[in-house]
Amino acid sequence: MVPAVFVPWTRRLLDATGVRPGDRVLDVACATGTVARLAAQRLAGTGHVTGVDLDKAFLAVARKASRDEGARIDWHCGNASSLPFSPGSFDVVLCQQGIQFFDDRESAVREMHRVLDTRGRLGVSVFRSIDRSPGYGSLATALGRHLGPRAEALTRRIFSLGDPEALRSLLQSAGFQRIDVRPDVGDVYFLSAEDFPHTYAAGWEAPPAATEAIIHEVVRDLRGYCDADGLTFPMETLMATAQK
Fold first, then answer.
1. What total of structural domains would you count in the chain?
2. Which CATH number is 74's domain given?
3. pTM for the model
4. CA dist 184 to 89, 106, 125, Å?
């Protein structure tokens, strides 16, 4: 999922936020560290990068990947609603596809504001509504039909903060200024139509019969997005930048 979905938008997020050598960068809800590791490449040995996430398994993957790449990154296990850092600790705070999952979005965004230095920069991205992503619309429906409402609901939650004005209001309420929220469209690519639903069915540990049914339905729905090179379908995200 990282090369298919997250890496292309990570580069755009770093560009939009203007990450540059010397910056102190925080990646909130860093997961396996895609944003943090690509930010570290841009710093070229200057500044510093920190990643924070609640999931210890994700952090273990992030630590190994950064060691393998020779990147100097600090990894912390922590909650976005109570970041374990002093006020003004960072020049840039980034959060890619994380805010929509927070139980307390307002507290998390206030924490991002708190840990930024004066005139520090914020960069966040969230996916737009699921109707703007044909692949995930089909997947959510198939997961719900064969694995139950929880699987469908959690898939749809990925797209639960897709309203530009709702995102803008969230950042304003935390005290951010010079807020810019704009849509961005990109293509998601998989080697085959089967790879896409199989990844999610495996993540849910779906029984073989359910996995086969999910794959069949999604492949049927997405046949118009397939060619000899694999599966490519569009997704839309909101890219927001702001200043403290």
1. 1
2. 3.40.50.150
3. 0.90
4. 29, 24, 10
